[in-house]
Amino acid sequence: MALSKLEKRIRIKRRVRGKISGSSELPRLSVYKSNKEIYAQLIDDKNGTTLVSASSREKGVDANGTKTEVSAAVGKAIAAKAVAAGIESIVFDRNGFVYHGRVKALADGAREGGLKF
C-alpha cells in the first residue's frame, strides 16, 4: 500500500534526525510549515529545551506579502533573536520538508540575519 504524504515526511524526518542533533553550542534549527503559517525554533536536544523561537504569527514579524516573503522575514527574526542570545552557528533541520520554496526562503533569511550553517 502506498504511503500518504504525511507518512513519507515522517519517514524522511526520522532518517534525518538519526544523523543530526542539536546542542547548546550548536543548536538545531527546526522548521515546521502549515498551509498558512511557518514556525522555526532553535533546539538543544541534549537538554531537551527550546532556546529561541519565531513564527509568522508573532507581532514582530512582518506578515504582509506572499508566504515566501513571510518565511524570509521569519528567518531574519529567528536569526536576530539567536544572535542576541549569543548563537552564531546552527544545524539546519528541514523536518522532512523539501528544501524548496518557503523552507529555502526561511534558511536564506536566517543566513542574511547572521546565522552560519
TrEMBL record:
<comment type="similarity">
    <text>Belongs to the universal ribosomal protein uL18 family.</text>
</comment>
<keyword id="KW-0694">RNA-binding</keyword>
<protein>
    <recommendedName>
        <fullName>Large ribosomal subunit protein uL18</fullName>
    </recommendedName>
</protein>
<dbReference type="GO" id="GO:0005840">
    <property type="term" value="C:ribosome"/>
</dbReference>
<dbReference type="InterPro" id="IPR057268">
    <property type="entry name" value="Ribosomal_L18"/>
</dbReference>
<dbReference type="InterPro" id="IPR005484">
    <property type="entry name" value="Ribosomal_uL18_bac/plant/anim"/>
</dbReference>
<dbReference type="Pfam" id="PF00861">
    <property type="entry name" value="Ribosomal_L18p"/>
</dbReference>
<dbReference type="InterPro" id="IPR004389">
    <property type="entry name" value="Ribosomal_uL18_bac-type"/>
</dbReference>
<keyword id="KW-0687">Ribonucleoprotein</keyword>
<comment type="function">
    <text>This is one of the proteins that bind and probably mediate the attachment of the 5S RNA into the large ribosomal subunit, where it forms part of the central protuberance.</text>
</comment>
<keyword id="KW-0689">Ribosomal protein</keyword>
<keyword id="KW-0699">rRNA-binding</keyword>
<comment type="subunit">
    <text>Part of the 50S ribosomal subunit; part of the 5S rRNA/L5/L18/L25 subcomplex. Contacts the 5S and 23S rRNAs.</text>
</comment>
